[in-house]
Amino acid sequence: MLVIKNLTKQFKAGKPIFAGISMSFEQGCGVGLVGPNGSGKTTFLRILSVNSFPTDGMVLYNGVDIHRKPSAYLQYVGLVHDEETLPHHLSAMELLEWILRSRKLWEDESFENMNNLFDKLALAERDEPIGTYSTGMKKKTQIAAAIIVEPKILILDEPLRGLDEATRKVVFNLIADTKIKNNTLILMASHSTRSLREISDKMIEFPLTRE
Q: How far apart are CA 147 and CA 99, in angstroms?
C-alpha cells in the first residue's frame, strides 16, 4: 500500500502547491489525476517518483519512507515522465537491457520479451540511437521501459502525448494487462479525462484540497 501523510509542497514563500494532504492507494487500483495545467499533478507525481522532496509530510510504501530509502522503493516502480529524458547514445533495446540488468531482472527470455513489447508499440527503429527518435518514438520507449520491469507501481505523467490513436489503444491495453497481471497500482495524469476513466477506479481532481 502507498500511504501519503500530511503532504505539503511549497517552492517559495506564499501559497503552497498543496498542503496537509493525506490519502492511501491499494495495490491493483487505477488512479486518474485530472486538472488544469499548473494545478500540481506533475509535482505530485514527481514526489511519488522521488524526483522531488516534500516540504512537509511523508510518503510510505509498505511502511517505508520512500524519500529516506528510495532504492528500496524504486525497484518496484515503473515511470513515464512528462518529458522524454532518455540517453541519446543508447538504442531502445540497449536501454531496456540496461534497466533489466541493473534491477537484476535479466532472464533468458528477456530479449524476446523486449522485441515483443516493441512490436506491440510498433517501434521498428528499436536498434537505432534514441537521439534520432521523434517525440512519439521516445514516448514509446519510455512506456516500454516502464512496463518491461513488471512494476508494482506504475506512474504515468501524460503518457499519451505524441502518440497516434492506434498506439494509444495499445498503450491502454498494456497498462490494463500490467494492472491485472502484477496487481499494479496505476497513477496516471492526463488531459484526456475520458481516457483516464477507461482505466481508473478512482479520480483525483487537482488542485488538491485537504480532506
A: 11
Question: For the structural domain made of 2-205, what CATH number should be given?
Answer: 3.40.50.300
The 56-61 sheet, strands edge to edge = 18-25, 2-9, 56-61, 64-65
* Under 8 Å between Cβ of 23 and 192: no
Beta bridge partners of 137: none
Structural element, H or E, at residue 63 = none
d(CA 145, CA 3): 25
C-alpha cell at 194: 475520458
| Whether the model pTM is above 0.90 | yes
Domain ranges of the chain: 2-205
Q: What is the pLDDT of residues 27-68, one digit of tens each?
A: 999 999 999 988 999 999 999 999 999 999 999 999 999 999
- Whether the upstream peptide bond of residue 207 has omega within 30° of 0, thus cis, is yes
User: How far is the C-alpha of 205 from the C-alpha of 208, rounded, in Å?
Assistant: 7
Q: Where are the alpha helices (DSSP H) in the chain?
A: 41-48, 70-74, 92-102, 110-120, 135-147, 165-182, 193-199
DSSP state of 91: B
Edge to edge, the sheet with strand 30-34 lists: 77-80, 153-157, 185-189, 30-34, 202-205
